[in-house]
Amino acid sequence: MKSSKIGLCALCLLMIGGVQAESAEALYDRGVEHAAQGRLQEAGDAFAQALQADPHDFSSATALEIVEDATSGEIREATAVHLFKAFVVGNEGDWDQAMAEADEAVAGDPGYGKAWSSRGNIHALQERHEQAIADYSKAIELDPQDAEPYQSRAAMHTLTGNYDPAIADFTRALERNPKFAMSWFDRGVVYANSKKDYDRALSDFDEALKIDPAFEEVYLNRGLIHAYVKHDYARAVADFDKVLEINPELVAVHLNKANVYEQTGRMEEAINAYEAYIELAPPEEAATVEEARQRIDVLKNQGSTE
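RESULT FIELD:
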């Protein structure tokens, strides 16, 4: 899911060398550009390649469905083109044109649930939550077996503080697609943050990782619960290490490791974790870097007086 761009599902709750294969995100973006130009066959090929690169790329999976629905005659090809044009111009910041394109898609195929879902995503990314919920609800009415609008509506309920309906919709999404790792993760986040039901949260995080073992946000959130709720420090460190293995750029995770090491009296390892953070932190985190340096001084002073 491409949460930083207009894509084919709503906001999700949450974070070299040699010749490399093109990334799933790059292939997805290329497919959207092709589709917006009416080159649906090339778009379908790009989305299929994106799914080969990342089988858990939900945006590419849904985009491929739209392309296949258009090329098979289930919907008008113009409807698909309007939808993809909406994504392109929306990502360029032209929200009025994005909505106009989405409106054309809905008008051209008013019985097509994905057109309503896609328009809902544009509302969602402009924080028009009630309008987004209305479009997702219409998509559900038209295609009750599609998991996507339940997931998207659940995200809107979460953002508006309606946690019970959010959990209900995440659950409905999972009933329709139990391999939807994002729904397991998002429901776990709601259980943890709003319900303080950490056991259910951990269970949902575990299910998400069975489906997508490289889901870094799940390891991070599971590690935080292990560290600060369950006080299971060994599991917390293991989860934080996994996050850094998957994405070394999440350098703030070194601070979580340092805190855990302090809690368990492993001061030398805590100092090493702070130093790793200081070495890798970006310039905009200068204030936090200074706090880490001060913490190292405190730990070293404690060691010299023992």
